[in-house]
Design goal:
- This protein has 11 helices and 15 strands.
- It is α/β, with parallel strands linked by helices and 561 residues long.
- It has a 5-stranded parallel beta sheet. The protein has a 5-stranded antiparallel beta sheet with strand order 9-10-11-8-14, covered by helices on one side. Strands 4-5-6 form a 3-stranded antiparallel beta sheet.
- Strand 4 (260-268) and strand 5 (273-281) form a beta hairpin.
- The two termini are 15 Å apart.
- The structure holds flavin-adenine dinucleotide (FAD) and iron/sulfur cluster (SF4).
């Protein structure tokens, strides 16, 4: 019998493991995918010509196995083993409502491929549902989470600049990454022409300097290669494998079992407690059970809903912890699609060194102090680069003398501005279990129904108009632009399928991420989120995970579980 079972080893599961084991609990982590060993299983140190087919993935393989995953900007030959095979793990969507689901099922989950943008949410965000009545009011506010943001940022290491913006609170950041000359010029012009708007360096979980907490785990400084999604042999970006799992292992309290697909959670109706999980061995398809005093679901938003809905019993005929009928509902993502790319005049004698591994931020400015004819907001990312030069990959220019020659002649400066819009909670956007289709291990596949609403589309249109206006005001010529709201899921910020709330009749989790229905069941991945805000969400999953783990230990010790 373990003190706790954690399902999933990605960003949120890694944090739960670190916190629980450091408090002395014996923890079992179950991960459905294969083991990935930090450094040994990364291909970041290889040159393109050292990869099979010089880094090209055969088209028939892409069509057969990676029809969805290959659309992701970060998918490539060096990290193909970090992405699921769509052929093995299908999901269904209704006709006319596509959903793009990017997944990494292996030890470390998507912490290996994530973009590492790490932004705090603000009071504005936690108060939004309560204020305009869309979705459940959050049972917490910024003040509840602020110390936990401090806690996770200090350990993970987040670089950034202090800006004093209420809508994007500051932390104790590592030194910021710089703006290049064109970005600095753009910033000056935006701030002069659009009061309330600013351009700030990324807040990103890459070590621009190494503090003792990170050094103790063997993590080194960032080399600005921007191939983080291939894994980083320096351990310079935060992932479960570089940071939380080594810390948890150092305690001697962590057991990890990979290739262990959690099928369902076991519930004892006499005590109204979960007692463990049923598992299918991914290699042999044999069934096992494991017992624990509490269970943390950290399988990520859609799989967590799948597990809960698959955990049916007489006590919970619609799925575990689902007396509210909210499990699977309110699926959200940030809606992309607002994009403007421009040619920036001048600066031909200016260059930059290295590849900054994230874009700059134009923090939310709409509906902060005033009210537009739409609700909530959007934030924008921006970067300027010389065309012909590589910005995020080691493959695009090829190899040899011709490639070297090309690099000596950088093209004109280009600038990109892209937006992500907040998506309102909508109970009809939901994950259910497919009535008849099963995956190769016998699990019902997720059926995902999700589409942007009117307000979401208005936000995308506003972000598009603003992006173009800003480029023009800075003197850039817009050469390419977006075409309306993007497909849900494509921003890779799925949230909401077991959301937190005050009222057990309308929400699944309480203010400690504890199921209203079953006190020893905790959920701290994206499914816990009651709204999306405009910020990338994973830092908030980390803070919620650390906070919930801390409270779970207190409850366990006090005999309250
Ligand atoms: C290319 C890319 C860029 C991104 N950029 C950013 C960014 O800049 N900022 C940001 O905030 N977020 C970003 N994200 C999103 C971020 O990766 C996710 O929000 C985050 O990883 C979610 O953490 P998680 O713990 O919920 O799930 P994951 O990290 O996805 O981990 C879930 C784990 O659970 C396992 N699992 C699933 N089902 C089961 C089961 N039945 N049994 C056992 N184990 C199971 C999976 O195999 C996986 O290892 C990005 C993602 C990608 C792919
Ligand atoms: S940019 Fe930094 S974190 Fe990313 S792969 Fe290079 S050294 Fe590692």
């Amino acid at each position: 019998m373990f003190d706790a079972i954690i399902v999933g080893s990605g960003i949120s599961g890694g944090w739960v493991a670190k916190e629980l084991t450091e408090k002395g609990l014996k923890v079992l982590m179950l991960e459905r995918g294969p083991n990935i060993e930090h450094i040994k299983d990364y291909k970041d140190a290889l040159m393109p010509w050292e990869l099979p087919d010089e880094g090209r993935i055969p088209e028939d393989e892409i069509a057969r196995d990676y029809a969805v995953q290959s659309r992701n900007y970060a998918f490539n030959a060096a990290n193909k083993h970090f992405w699921v095979k769509d052929s093995e793990l299908p999901y269904s969507t209704p006709a006319g409502k596509p959903f793009t689901w990017y997944r990494g099922f292996h030890l470390g989950g998507r912490s290996l491929m994530w973009g590492r943008m790490s932004l705090r949410w603000s009071e504005l965000d936690f108060a939004a549902n309560g204020k305009d009545g869309h979705g459940s009011d959050w049972p917490i506010r910024y003040a509840d989470l602020a110390p936990w943001y401090d806690h996770v940022e200090a350990f993970a290491g987040v670089s950034g600049s202090k800006e004093g913006l209420a809508q994007l609170p500051d932390g104790d950041f590592l030194k910021p990454m710089g703006l290049n000359d064109v970005e600095a010029d753009f910033k000056k012009k935006i701030e002069a022409n659009f009061p309330g708007r600013t351009v700030i360096p990324p807040r990103v979980a890459n070590l621009t300097e190494v503090r003792p907490q990170q050094e103790a785990l063997g993590r080194g400084p960032c080399q600005f290669r921007s191939i983080c999604h291939d894994g980083c042999s320096y351990g310079a970006y935060f992932s479960s494998l570089s940071a939380t799992l080594p810390a948890a292992r150092n305690t001697g309290n962590l057991t990890v079992i990979t290739d262990a697909i959690v099928h369902s959670v076991i519930h004892d109706p006499k005590t109204n407690r979960v007692t463990g999980v049923r598992v299918i061995d991914a290699r042999t398809s044999k069934a096992h059970t494991y017992q624990g005093k509490m269970v943390f679901l950290n399988a990520s938003t859609i799989p967590t809903a799948q597990i809960l809905l698959n955990s049916r019993s007489a006590a919970f005929p619609n799925g575990l912890a689902n007396s509210s009928d909210m499990v699977g509902r309110n699926l959200m993502d940030h809606i992309g699609g607002a994009v403007a790319i421009g040619m920036y005049p001048g600066f031909e004698d200016r260059y930059y060194r290295g590849r900054r591994p994230q874009a700059n931020i134009i923090p939310r400015y709409r509906n902060v102090d005033t009210q537009e004819d739409y609700l909530r907001g959007f934030s924008l990312g921006t970067m300027a680069f010389r065309s012909n030069w590589q910005i995020g990959s080691k493959f695009p220019i090829g190899v040899g003398a011709a490639a070297k020659d090309k690099l000596r002649k950088p093209g004109p400066w280009m600038i990109f501005v892209g937006g992500t819009a907040e998506m309102l909670p909508n109970r009809d956007n939901r994950v259910t279990l497919h009535a008849s289709r099963r995956d190769k291990w016998g699990m019902p596949i997720p059926h995902i129904e999700c589409e942007p609403g009117d307000n979401d589309r208005k936000l995308v249109a506003a972000a598009q108009a603003d992006a173009e206006a800003m480029l023009k005001a800075a003197g850039a010529m817009v050469v390419n632009k977006g075409n309306g709201a993007g497909t849900p899921g494509a921003t890779i910020h799925e949230m909401g399928t077991a959301h937190m709330g005050i009222d057990p009749r309308t929400s699944v989790l309480n203010k400690y991420n504890q199921a209203h229905d079953v006190p020893n069941l905790f959920i701290t991945d994206g499914s816990a989120m009651a709204s999306t805000a405009t910020q990338n969400p994973s830092l908030t999953y980390m803070a919620l995970s650390a906070r919930a783990a801390h409270h779970a230990v207190e409850f366990l010790k006090a005999g309250k579980l």
